[in-house]
Specification:
Length: 575
């Protein structure tokens, strides 16, 4: 490859690496600790915080207007100036030349409008930070802690399902199958390097590193592919809705579930209708009375693809049914034309629409977020759990190594890296500077790749990175020694560099390819920390070969061909 081609490749890799590295740098170095703690909480916590802060700020602003209406707008309310200005213009009113507290307040039609604007400000910032945290490099349980969930098999439900009593061996076998299914789900879900293992014969312990949404994780771990299509009884829906409105205390049971009215005939059941609110949470918007008989179960769905409606802009989900499911769905829709059909997930009506014609294999519905659809598709594809799992215990866990251990580990890495850099400069002189540049870029690119794939950094992962640093140095040492041999023979600087890289190429490739194969095997067969080590090792091998053979070669060629240096300062005693 020409020098220009190599330069373009290097610049392109650095640009892409910078793009993927930005969320990690921004999250860990430019985001306050308090903000990180808020953003990594559940959506319910974010909702409570945003509303609480909005109420507090609105009260503060109203108090300021009442006591000193001509006061300057405090700095913490400066973001409201733009919104207030837009409101003035939209109403055809003159925009104030000086922003006082009263002028700012008058830009909002009501206290409710002001509250909505302030809440939106906090909500948007925190949800953006939450999105940023999900794109940043995650730290493992040993470095930052995470979530520990103990799942316990529901033996009674298992016996009821089979219609007989079961032995301990049968329970253990079912739990083992659950373990395999959960491993598959977690891999597809995107949770990196979780610890998932048997606890006794009837329990499974799942430890998830980093900040994860508890509600989403629980739903995912316990998910049974509970998507179903039910026909809606519209007349009874109106009747039950009116009954609940007249008798609010009769709407819910003590556990929060819907109380079924006594006048409901057999075969009918009340379910809540939910829509996703601005926080991405389910919000009850009404009720539907459903035919209790499942019209079509989600087990017949073979694929779920998300898209966006071109007209409404709302997410849509396209489900593809298998042959048996297509026949059942055709029978269901052809015999219920002009009736409402509800899409029920985990007991919640997520969408409903009028059946206008018979449908066979392809189904398009709205009401799911893209995240919900993706999770649901994974749950459906990885099969139902043989035995039901209940959450016996769930808690946040701290870093197993502790802050002191983490700090000592980071210091050890920094000292070791610094010693390698100093040694390369001392022994290989100018060439050592080139090797050090390649080493630094190697670390940057490794971190960018780990961030791009949202991998988790654990102590074993750090060990893999350290090993790749040593291998990157080894590659440069091989190249420098080959160049030195050619230079001692009396060849010019340019000829020595060219011959040295050519002769070192296959030596470096052979050594790294064999190690790369071993890393791939570990990544496929290993779990937890072993997989983390293998991932970083495999990544580091690729990046170290790139920096040694591309970056170092590019810098050498620049000096010997463009700068036209005639002497290589590549070691002591060589002039």
């Amino acid at each position: 490859m020409s020098k220009r081609g190599r330069l373009i490749v290097v610049l392109l890799v650095l640009a892409v690496g910078g793009y993927f590295l930005y969320p990690t740098v921004s999250w860990y170095f430019f985001t306050q600790q308090e903000t990180r703690e808020l953003a990594t909480g559940s959506k319910e916590q974010i909702k409570e915080y945003a509303r609480g802060r909005a109420a507090q700020d609105v009260r503060e602003l109203i108090s300021l207007v009442n006591t000193n209406p001509t006061a300057e707008v405090p700095a913490n309310f400066s973001y409201l100036k733009t919104i207030s200005r837009d409101n003035y213009k939209a109403a055809g009113r003159t925009v104030p030349g000086t922003w006082t507290a009263a002028a700012l307040m008058n830009g909002f039609a009501s206290e409710s409008a002001l509250f909505s604007a302030v809440e939106a400000y906090y909500r948007t910032n925190l949800l953006d930070d939450k999105d940023k945290s999900e794109k940043a490099l995650q730290l493992g349980l040993d470095l930052s802690g995470g979530m520990s969930i103990l799942l316990e098999a529901d033996v009674e439900a298992f016996e009821e399902k089979l219609g007989r009593s079961v032995s301990d061996a049968e329970v253990a076998q079912a739990v083992q199958e659950n373990l395999e299914i959960l491993n598959n789900r977690i891999d597809q879900f995107g949770l990196t390097e979780p610890e998932i293992r048997l606890q006794g014969t009837s329990q499974i312990l799942v430890e998830i590193p980093g900040a994860a949404d508890p509600e989403r994780v629980n739903s995912f771990l316990q998910g049974r592919g509970s998507l179903a299509f039910h026909i809606v009884d519209s007349d009874l829906t109106d009747e039950v809705a009116a009954y609940y409105e007249q008798n609010p205390s009769e709407k819910y049971n003590n556990d929060g579930s819907f109380r079924q009215p006594d006048f409901l005939p057999p075969g009918r059941v009340v379910a809540g209708r939910y829509e996703t609110d601005i926080y991405g949470m389910d919000e009850e918007v009404g009720i539907s009375v459903l035919h209790e008989e499942v019209g079509l179960d989600g087990i017949y769905i073979v694929e779920a693809i998300t898209s966006t409606n071109q007209i409404t802009g709302r997410p849509t989900v396209n489900f593809q049914l298998d042959a048996d499911g297509g026949e059942l769905f055709y029978k269901l829709t052809s015999t219920n034309v002009d009736k409402l059909m509800a899409v029920v997930m985990d007991g919640k009506v997520k969408a409903q629409a009028t059946i206008t014609e018979a449908i066979r294999n392809s189904v398009q519905i709205t009401g799911f977020s893209a995240e919900e659809a993706s999770d649901l598709a994974i749950v459906l594809k990885t099969a139902a759990l043989p035995i039901t799992l209940d959450v016996a215990n769930q808690q946040a866990v701290g870093a197993s190594l502790g802050e002191d251990s983490v700090r000592q580990g980071i210091n050890a890495i920094a000292v070791g890296f610094a010693l390698v850099i100093l040694f390369m400069i001392f022994y290989y002189r100018r060439a050592g500077l080139i090797a050090d540049l390649a080493l630094i870029l190697n670390l940057v690119i490794i971190t960018a790749i780990l961030s791009a794939f949202n991998l988790t950094l654990t102590l074993t992962s750090i060990a893999g990175i350290i090993l790749t640093v040593g291998m990157a140095v080894d590659a440069n040492v091989i190249i420098f020694e080959r160049i030195k041999e050619e230079y001692i023979l009396g060849k010019s600087a340019e000829a020595s560099v060219k011959a040295g890289f050519k002769k070192a190429f296959w030596t470096i490739m052979d050594a790294n390819i064999t190690t790369f194969i071993a890393a791939l095997v570990l990544a496929q067969l290993g779990t937890g920390g072993v997989r983390g080590f293998a991932n970083t090792l495999a990544t580091g091998i690729v990046t170290s070969m790139f920096t040694a053979l591309f970056v170092s070669r590019l810098v050498f060629d620049f000096f010997v061909q463009k700068v036209k240096i005639s002497k290589l300062r590549i070691s002591w005693g060589i002039k």
